[in-house]
Amino acid sequence: MLNFNVMKKMKNYIYPLLMVLLFVRCTDVLDIDDINNYSPDLVWNDANLANAYMTNLYPMFGNWSTGADRTSQQIAGIYWYADRITISNGEYKNWNYSRIRLINQALIDVNAGTLEQEVKDNITGQALFMRAFTYFGMINYHGGVPYIKEPQDRYEDDLYVARNTTEECFDFLIEDLDQAIALLPESIGTASGDYGRIDAAFAKAFKAKVLLYKSSPQFNPSNPWNNAYWQEAYQANKDAYESLKGLGYGLVDDYSDIALSERNPEVVFSVINSYPNKTAAWDHGVRPGSESRGPASACPTWEYVQEFPMIDGKMYNDPSSEYYMTEEEFLQNYWENRDPRFEKSIVWNGKIYEVSGKAGKRQYTSLGIAHELDDFGINPKAATNSTNLDRYTGFFILKNSLLNLAQPEVQQYDVDYVVMRFAEVMLNYAEAANETGDQAAAISILKEIRERAGIMPGDDGLFGMSVGSREEVREAILAERNIEFSFEGHRFWDLRRLRMLDRLDGTSKHGVEAIAIEADGEEQPLSEARELANTYSLVEDNFKYSLLQVPRSGVQVSVLPETYYFFPIQQSIIDKNNNIEQNMNWGGTFNPTLE
């Protein structure tokens, strides 16, 4: 097998050749007009070209995105305006048969070539996983789709195929994953030149995730928690958890290291980034504008700040918490005694934030005190207007940031993008265990996650959780996922598969304005406050805080109707193939659920 990292460097040279030979043109519809000219004798008899072909499919796994959780309450911006999704527009349409065709072509041609059998098996395993991964995205969006397993020929094949049922699609998908698991290496070590390729460990973990979706309320609305699919999900998730744990996967000691310590034991699968060949848009999207190449594109909301528990694992407004506070008390002291993941994930006004190697630096957001690219507020005494009121909140993202990068270097961010980590494998298992009666396993995992976070165990050893019933454990798992996977793009999809989008529907978002005050609570003259801020002498307690709704203009309330549990097939697809039925929840006849 050719070294994967060497292949990454060869890509710049091989890719143009492959584009000419293989990818004459692609469309986003079901290959009715997309017949690629293809030379299997050239590619599948040469290990270098065969592996280059596969390398060029790996971008399907994505990369860091600052807006990954803009769809939830975690990040500012009203993403879900009324009629964001319609049948005719391109929003939330996933019909990726151009990629499916390339994958299917590889599956056919690799076994007709003269490569060594070990190479053929490995490429076949990767391709089968990629096909399942691609179809899962489509099924999650739309329900059942045409599950095409061979390249379509416009002269000989029936291109106007109908949708497979959702159940058939899940069956085919699991079949592909099982075959992939059998062909792929059990686990690719961190020192291997093939690190970053798909292995059986990732395939097992992904299969378990797929079955969690299959059993979920999204696909089983009339029997969400007691359907027969939960047992299958439990067995797969238990197997994935135990198998990966046996291979040495586990939680890293420090939550700050989940991505910044690359190739750590928690990483199940990652996309390899390496400056200057491949970088990601993270640091220059989360840093305050004064430390970046422009304004931050993603800022945490007050709603999300409230959702982090206290250090004892309980919420600030829980009367049984040692750190109980009223709403007003919490607003004026929200940074104190929090779950340690809060400090490791979020930057707030007055927090020590030693970005760009600036020792002792504190970050300010107060209007009239902070840099104009960092400020947030409407304080009339500042005698200036903030230009950030529609995009900022008074908070910034710290998680996964490379603070050592100097301001001119922020676009050199090349931390490997973690697609799946062992914490997700654990919480997926906990969810399936709880729904099938194994609450003890679920609670044990929750305790392990919270212990790693640094939450106090308490006298009862439950780390602040109320987990007496199945429903309470379910809510505890969902709450833990919300915090553990902050800004990683999980929250909206978790609520959607659990049919809980009503928790986002009709909601608004807020930020926090900070105004410097004297010891007696009176507002401090801004000239004095600026002078103190220049030496980082103002701390959090030197400010008073108030809430501001964000954005300040335009759409301010999220709208997520019931129809969003399955997105529609785009009308242009149906117009080209009248055998494709529209989903029932969008005026058609196709049932996208498993019922």
Overview of the molecule:
- The chain is mostly helical.
- The protein has a domain at 294-411 and 506-550.
- The chain has 19 helices and 6 strands.
- It has helices at 4-21, 40-43, 47-55, 97-109, 117-142, 166-183, 200-215, 229-246, 257-260, 283-286, 302-307, 327-333, 340-345, 422-435, 439-453, 470-484, 491-497, 526-534, 571-576; strands at 267-271, 346-348, 395-397, 417-421, 509-516, 543-550.
- Strands 1-4 form a two-stranded antiparallel sheet. A two-stranded antiparallel ribbon has the order 2-3. A two-stranded antiparallel sheet has the order 5-6.
- It is globular, with a radius of gyration of 25 Å.
- The model is unreliable at 6-36 (pLDDT under 50).
**Total count of helical runs of at least 4 residues:** 19
Terminus-to-terminus distance = 44 Å
- DSSP, total strands: 6
Content-based structural category: mainly alpha
Major pleated sheet: 2 strands, antiparallel
Can you give the mean pLDDT?
A: 93
Identify the overall geometry.
globular
The helical percent reads 25-40%
Strand order of the largest sheet: 1-4
Report Rg.
25 Å
Poorly predicted runs of 5 or more residues = 6-36
Helix-strand string: HHHHHHHHHEHHHHEEEHHHHEHEH
Strand content: 5-15%
Domain SusD-like N-terminal: 74-188
Organism: Algoriphagus zhangzhouensis
InterPro entries: SusD-like_N, SusD_RagB_dom, TPR-like_helical_dom_sf
Pfam families: SusD-like_3 (PF14322), SusD_RagB (PF07980)
